Amino acid sequence: MTLNPRGFAGASWLRDVFLTVPREHFVPDQVWWPTAREDGLYSLIDRTERPRAWLKAVYRTGTALITQIDDGQVPPTGPAVGAFTSSVSSSGVIIELLRHLAPRPGDHVLEIGTGTAYTTALLTTRTGPQTVVSIEIDPRIAERARDRLTAMQLDPLVITGDGEQGYAPAGPYDRIVATASVRRIPPAWLEQLRPGGVLVAPLDSPFGCDLLVRLTGDGQDGGRGKFVAAVEFMRVRGQRERRPHAELGWPGELDPERWQDLRIDAGPRGQRVIEPSVLPQ
Ligand SMILES: C[S@@+](CC[C@H](N)C(=O)[O-])C[C@H]1O[C@@H](n2cnc3c(N)ncnc32)[C@H](O)[C@@H]1O
Question: Does the global pTM surpass 0.70?
Answer without folding.
Answer: yes
